[in-house]
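Researcher: Structure for this, please.
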Amino acid sequence: MELTTAIKPFEELSNHELYAIIRLRNEVFVVEQECVFQDADNKDQFAYHVMIKSGDFLVAYSRVLPAGASFAEASIGRVVSDKKARGTGAGKRLMRDSISFINSKYGPCTIRIGAQTYLNGFYKSLGFVNAGEVYLEDGIEHVEMTTEV
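Model: Predicted structure, token format:
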């Protein structure tokens, strides 16, 4: 599977890209994880959208927010992979590209995420460390994690 990365601010997303992002987020977070929550949280407009594609198919996605938007630090959120792409390395590439983008856009800085606890090992393999206690968000256990500069 040949993968390409595209990173765009909200205003540069095409209608098709925005639809694919919303579809993937709903497919995984709402349907697969059975989590009823307000996905449209008025942060997408301030985010950079990291898309990993195979051809025209969106296989993985995250949004990068500047410091102050979700946390005091720059952050990566809404991290999601299509079921068919899991185990292919698309998720690691997504996170590496997201981290690289933050470092190039904002300079070397601490990055904070709110991670689902079952993915703790995945995020630790990318350099994140636990930075708080486990908490429930929308019925799913999460923990804040950060990178060190």
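Researcher: Any notable elements?
Model: The beta strands are 4-9, 48-54, 57-65, 74-81, 111-116, 129-130, 135-137, 140-146. The radius of gyration is 14 Å.
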